[in-house]
Amino acid sequence: MEGIPHPIPRTVEEVFNDFKGRRAGLIKALTSDVQKFYQQCDPEKENLCLYGLPNETWEVNLPVEEVPPELPEPALGINFARDGMPEKDWLSLVAVHSDSWLLSVAFYFGARFGFGKTERKRLFQMINELPTVFEVVTGAVKQTKEQAATQTNSSKNKSSGRVPSRQPELMPKAAKMSAPKDEDESGEEEEEDDEQGATLCGACGDNYANDEFWICCDICERWFHGKCVKITPAKAEHIKQYKCPSCSSKRARV
């Protein structure tokens, strides 16, 4: 919880790094760790809050007792709504409140350490470059569906009938997107590449990088860093149909 000591951010870059760490923790709770998060939000318990921590971890806990609190507090009583609506809607609701909390914490630090108009604007611009927790959790990040469909088709074309390769087909696509436009590509394909932009991890929301191993969920068709879902390239070779933690937990509760 917020009682754990963390360095207090004092510059725009430090506040942004604090924001990114807390955001990554919240996204883990609502995606790759969703089953554990769901179980901890027992409606029989007292008012519970979801905290994202600067070290990219998360925890469900009671709110702090001090008034006023040292930092703005996240939404209270998220566990009470868990069984009163579909799980997908509940997770989306928690995600929306988490986005609000992240912004309030970031601008609390800005106010506390006297950020002026220029610093506040720069902080917001840096934050705005990242997809919101809600966008990541709901899959509403722009272009994700188009990317997944293109990557899935590419995987099927390249497959030899055995287990599809888990090395992401995005690699050639990334090279294609950065290639000059005078290549012999169809107009439709060029337009599709222009719209797609960068692929984002369904767990942490960060962009794809050439030196990272990625894996695609065969159910929701979202892409994930292997490290975010604890899948190695060697392990992926033996998976016939990969289901991400979110899809696995949904099917287990059906």
UniProtKB/TrEMBL annotation:
InterPro entries: Alfin, Alfin_N, PHD_AL_plant, Zinc_finger_PHD-type_CS, Znf_FYVE_PHD, Znf_PHD, Znf_PHD-finger, Znf_RING/FYVE/PHD
Region Disordered, annotated ranges: 145-196
Every PHD-type domain range: 198-250
Top-level division of the source organism's lineage: Eukaryota
Localization annotation: Nucleus
Gene Ontology biological-process annotations: chromatin organization; regulation of DNA-templated transcription
Gene Ontology molecular functions: histone binding; transcription cis-regulatory region binding; transcription coregulator activity; zinc ion binding
Pfam family, one: PHD
SUPFAM superfamilies in alphabetical order: FYVE/PHD zinc finger
Record's keyword annotation contains Transmembrane helix: no
Record's compositionally biased regions (Acidic residues): 182-196
Feature: compositional bias, Polar residues: 146-162
Coiled coil: none
Keyword match Hydrolase: no
GO cellular component: a single term: nucleus
Keywords: Chromatin regulator, Metal-binding, Nucleus, Transcription, Transcription regulation, Zinc, Zinc-finger
Subunit and interaction comment: Interacts with H3K4me3 and to a lesser extent with H3K4me2.
Protein's job: Histone-binding component that specifically recognizes H3 tails trimethylated on 'Lys-4' (H3K4me3), which mark transcription start sites of virtually all active genes.
The family this protein is said to belong to: Belongs to the Alfin family.
Domain notes: The PHD-type zinc finger mediates the binding to H3K4me3.
Name of the protein described by the UniProt record: PHD finger protein ALFIN-LIKE
Species of the source: Sesamum alatum
